[in-house]
């Protein structure tokens, strides 16, 4: 019984410590916001910081020409634009193609030759088509 009680107290202490660390990180982030920093709000609005008023806990951001004023609690995090990779730059598994391979690529023909099966000659194809039409 005592072991369970000690474990519960330890878990509660660890959780409160973690929450305090997260609160401190958010407080430091908001206090260190400088004009020009790109941020995203909890509503998904992306913009650059224009001014920060620590006394009233307000921030003004510029989102594509529109000045918007938010409270500190509405700021989610600093925004970093995700990297965009075009479909032509990756293979079917999502792995990037080598730079040299893109320039050296040659359009593929409809027929693919393998070492064990040579491609059919045009004459062979004509014979096969003729045989198929005669049997019908």
Automatic annotation (TrEMBL):
<protein>
    <submittedName>
        <fullName>Preprotein translocase subunit YajC</fullName>
    </submittedName>
</protein>
<keyword id="KW-1003">Cell membrane</keyword>
<feature type="region of interest" description="Disordered">
    <location>
        <begin position="86"/>
        <end position="121"/>
    </location>
</feature>
<comment type="similarity">
    <text>Belongs to the YajC family.</text>
</comment>
<keyword id="KW-0812">Transmembrane</keyword>
<dbReference type="GO" id="GO:0005886">
    <property type="term" value="C:plasma membrane"/>
</dbReference>
<dbReference type="Pfam" id="PF02699">
    <property type="entry name" value="YajC"/>
</dbReference>
<keyword id="KW-1133">Transmembrane helix</keyword>
<keyword id="KW-0653">Protein transport</keyword>
<keyword id="KW-0813">Transport</keyword>
<dbReference type="GO" id="GO:0015031">
    <property type="term" value="P:protein transport"/>
</dbReference>
<dbReference type="InterPro" id="IPR003849">
    <property type="entry name" value="Preprotein_translocase_YajC"/>
</dbReference>
<keyword id="KW-0472">Membrane</keyword>
<keyword id="KW-0811">Translocation</keyword>
């Amino acid at each position: 019984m005592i072991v369970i009680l000690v474990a519960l107290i330890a878990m509660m202490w660890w959780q409160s410590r973690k929450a305090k660390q997260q609160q401190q990180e958010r407080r430091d982030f908001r206090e260190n916001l400088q004009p020009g920093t790109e941020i995203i709000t909890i509503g998904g609005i992306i913009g650059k910081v224009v001014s920060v008023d620590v006394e009233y806990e307000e921030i003004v951001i510029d989102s594509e020409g529109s000045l918007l004023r938010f409270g500190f609690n509405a700021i989610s995090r600093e925004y970093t634009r995700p990297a965009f990779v075009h479909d032509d730059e990756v293979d079917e598994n999502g792995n990037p193609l080598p730079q040299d391979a893109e320039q050296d690529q040659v359009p593929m023909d409809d027929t693919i030759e393998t070492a064990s099966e040579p491609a059919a000659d045009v004459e062979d194809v004509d014979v096969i088509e003729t045989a198929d039409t005669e049997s019908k």
